[in-house]
Amino acid sequence: MVKTPCCEKMGLKKGPWTPEEDQILISHIQQYGHGNWRALPKQAGLSRCGKSCRLRWINYLRPDIKRGRFSKEEEEIIIKLHGILGNRWATIATRLPGRTDNEIKNFWHTHLKKRLERSELQGSSNSLQEAQAVCSAGSSINMAQGVVDASDATSSSVDGKLLIANDSLLSRKNPPIVGLGFYGAVSSDISGQIIRNNSHSVIGEEMEFWYNMFMNSHHKGIKM
DNA sequence: AAGAGTACCAACCGCCACTTC
DNA sequence: GGAAGTGGCGGTTGGTACTCT
């Protein structure tokens, strides 16, 4: 097999999409779906690479995309999940229906990150600052993948919290770093829904929970 | 009014993980 | 088991809109 480059240099268009291209892509996907992104542009008659088509569809053309400003609630979710997961935008996006990883990433870099930096400078005590404490510690609890992808897990719920019995959920890409990220822990029920709770005492319990879970899995030799 | 600086966001790039052969 | 194909992710860039001087 010869590996073909993602975008053949010849004849493939780059840059902003035109309304005509959008229309072609939408109608093609509505008609045939997107079984194979690399083959799609050819089938649809687009001079774009498959990756570009996929990105355009996922980030802009998908019918369930939610446009407009992020709500306070969404901001809070992003901040807390970022505190736990780090820059795993796609995972965070699964908890924000209608929002794309790209949108969340942009929002983080253009709004939240700056706000966090400002609030840190002002020394104010609010949730943003708390999250900043998590982020600036450079911590990332990768086992939290299990929280976010709980719907895929073979799992059981204890007191509304989740136990994961599927180490396939655990990222191999990023080795686990256990640190202050526990502080911003978000818990989830068995269906993967986030249980929102800003109470410090509960956060403390969650820290303990996640810490114990990490230690248990570590001792059992679960790869994380 | 115009140029400079800044903010925002769509899109690209390179890498990695999973799947298929 | 390993090589190749493919999809997906995160980092980054570049263009445009907006604000300030």
UniProtKB/TrEMBL annotation:
Matching Pfam families: Myb_DNA-binding (PF00249)
UniProt-listed Gene3D superfamilies: Homeodomain-like
SUPFAM superfamilies cross-referenced by the UniProt entry: Homeodomain-like
GO terms under cellular component: nucleus
Keywords in alphabetical order: DNA-binding, Nucleus, Repeat
InterPro entries documented for this protein: Homeodomain-like_sf, Myb_dom, Myb_TF_plants, SANT/Myb
Predominant subcellular localization, coarse grouping: nucleus
A Gene Ontology molecular function term of the record: DNA binding
HTH myb-type domain residues: 9-61, 62-116
Domain spans labelled Myb-like: 9-61, 62-112
Keyword DNA-binding on entry: yes
Name recorded for this polypeptide: Myb-related protein Myb4
